[in-house]
Amino acid sequence: MKMPGNIAEPAAISLKDRYFDLKGLSAYSALGVGTLRAHIQAGALVAYKVKGKILIKKSHFDIFIEGFRIEKSLGNIVDEIMDSLKG
User: Fold this and answer.
1) Dihedrals phi, psi of 48, to nearest 5 degrees
2) If DSSP codes are grouped into helix, strand and coil, which group holds residue 87?
3) Beta-carbon count within 10 A of 11 CB
4) Which helix (H) or strand (E) holds 19?
5) What is the pTM of this model?
6) Which of 7, 17, 24, 30 has its CA at a distance of 20 to 30 angstroms from the CA of residue 76?
7) Domain carrying residue 29
8) What's the CATH number where 75 sits?
9) What is each CA distance from 36 to 27, 41, 50, 60, 73, in whole angstroms?
């Protein structure tokens, strides 16, 4: 049976940009709960508090984590520094 696209599409969108609690975001990101809390407390990571539960939107976390991206050229700089220290 073929389902109309407009029925399945909202479900796919809602899963794409869901909310995580700290434990779920920790599993998604491989960062510790304490690390996530520190970024929230510093105001760097957008979070919501609902009845004592902290929630973070996936899209907000993805934008936040992009700020920590290591550029390829950084590796070259590190190699150059290491080479200069060796002699």
Assistant:
1) -125, 145
2) coil
3) 9
4) strand 19-21
5) 0.66
6) 30
7) 17-86
8) 1.10.1660
9) 11, 9, 17, 13, 28
* DSSP secondary structure, 48-66, as one string: EEETTEEEEEHHHHHHHHH
pLDDT digit string (tens) for 49-87? 999 999 999 999 999 999 988 776 666 777 778 888 886
pLDDT for residue 72? 63
Q: Residue 59 contacts by C-beta under 8 Å, 6 or more apart in sequence?
A: 17
Q: Please report where in the chains the tokens 């290491």 appear, as a residue.
A: 82
The structural domain count of the chain equals 1
Placement of tokens 């508090």 in the chain? 49
Question: Looking up tokens 């976390």, which residue turns up?
Answer: 61
Residue 2 lies in a domain: no
- Both tokens assigned to 68: 């920590």
